[in-house]
Write a structure and sequence with these properties.
With 363 residues, the protein is an alpha/beta fold. The chain has a single domain, classed as Histone deacetylase domain (Arginase, Chain A), CATH 3.40.800.20. 37% of the residues lie in helices and 14% in strands. It contains 12 helices and 10 strands. The strands form 2 sheets. It has an 8-stranded parallel sheet with strand order 2-1-5-10-9-6-7-8, with helices on both faces. A hairpin with a 3-residue loop joins strand 3 and strand 4. Helix 2 packs across helix 11 and helix 5 packs across helix 6. Bound molecules: zinc ion. Zinc ion binds next to loops.
Length: 363
């Protein structure tokens, strides 16, 4: 019996919650095409025929679970918009007739992925779900997200399963997961570590000085990266993350994985290839094996280029399977002109200095 990797899938993610019109606006990047391209590639590679891969289905949940993370008013609002068949929330989240059902299914998908790991049904898991969740907050849709899939999953574990153990969330989507950060900002048992593009045009959040509050002080850690960060420099944050994870000693690690730092992504401005996602997963997996018996669950967030997205998903799965992985030939581009090493080391040293009262970090 080898290891088991659970992958949460559902056909509805490939067909429902359609953008209002097929034009290349911000809305239309978050479309069923994302999941169609992932599933086509997974099937072409025969991933689901692999004896170490187990297909999982989203857990079906009711409104009482959604209410752990969202207000009744907000849930009713999404319901009303879905029933009317259309709507725009804020300036960047569309709603169609299926949106409530699919956003709920995405929460159920994240819960299934995480519960399967906790219960030992699988060693690690990956929830291939949409819409993404890490920007959503109690009363607000934001940044293509409707419900906060990860925050809702953790609150479900805490409230409905009395799982009070320590949980670490590592978020490497291109954008700062402001929604997740806010849910757990003063929670000493939920550590949030975000690596994101240093792009403060929109959110004005995600600075290194946002360290949490009250009992959660030192347990919200932001590692912003400059635009044009390449594979060469991406993993510098591991020098901070590794000792913190070892010291925090969580019982479960959840990774909010977005692939929008890929060089081809329409929304992100970084220059990664799938190599970074493979290397990151390899390192995080080894850490989870050292710390918490490999209890590690990946939850899909962003990633919008339809060619890069499935390749990056495959990079994560190959790393989880301890298999070799090679970047795709379309990624064979020389980015050596973009050197951000000094900037990133400065960020790293400043962050280390801010964290010295909370964690012992040496590198
Ligand atoms: Zn993103």
């Amino acid at each position: 019996m080898g290891k088991k990797i659970g992958i949460v899938v559902d056909d509805d993610f490939s067909s429902q919650h359609q953008p209002p019109y097929p034009r290349p606006t911000f809305f239309s990047y978050e479309s069923p095409l994302r999941m169609i391209s992932i599933m086509n590639y997974m099937n072409k590679l025969g991933i689901f025929n692999n004896e170490n891969i187990i297909k999982l289905s989203p857990k079906s949940i009711d409104d009482s679970t959604l209410k752990l993370a969202h207000s009744q008013y907000y849930i009713d609002l999404i319901k009303r918009f879905s029933e009317s068949g259309h709507g725009i929330l804020g300036d960047d989240v569309f709603i169609d007739k299926d949106s409530l059902a699919l956003a709920k299914k995405a929460v159920g998908g994240a819960i299934e992925a995480i519960e399967s790991v906790i219960d030992g049904k699988v060693n690690q898991s990956f929830a291939l779900i949409r819409p993404p969740g890490h920007h959503a907050s109690k009363d607000n849709a934001s940044g293509l997200c409707i419900f906060n899939n990860i925050a809702n999953s953790i609150l479900y574990l805490r409230e409905k399963r009395q799982f009070y153990k320590k949980i670490a969330i590592i978020d490497i989507d291109d954008h700062f997961g402001d929604g997740i950060s806010r849910y757990f900002y003063n929670d000493p048992n939920t550590l949030y570590f975000s690596v994101h593009e240093y792009d403060f045009l929109d959110g004005d959040l995600g600075y290194i000085t946002e360290l949490g509050e009250g009992n959660g002080l030192g347990r919200n850690i932001n590692f912003p990266l400059p635009i044009n960060t390449t594979d060469e420099d991406f993993l510098e944050f591991m020098d901070i993350l590794t000792p913190i994870l070892i010291n925090f000693n969580p019982d479960l690690i959840i990774c909010a994985i977005g692939f929008d730092m890929h060089f081809s992504d329409q929304i992100g401005n970084c220059l990664l290839t799938s190599k970074s996602y493979y290397q990151f997963t390899t390192q995080l997996l080894a850490l989870s094996e050292q710390i918490c018996e490999g209890k590690l669950s990946f939850i899909l967030e962003g990633g919008y280029n339809l060619i890069a997205l499935p390749i990056c998903v495959n990079a994560v799965i190959r790393a989880l399977l301890y298999e070799k992985f090679y970047t795709h030939r379309f990624e064979d581009i020389d980015f050596s002109n973009f050197n951000n090493k000094q900037k990133i080391i400065r960020i790293k040293n400043n962050l280390k200095n801010l964290l010295k009262d909370f964690w012992l970090i040496e590198y």
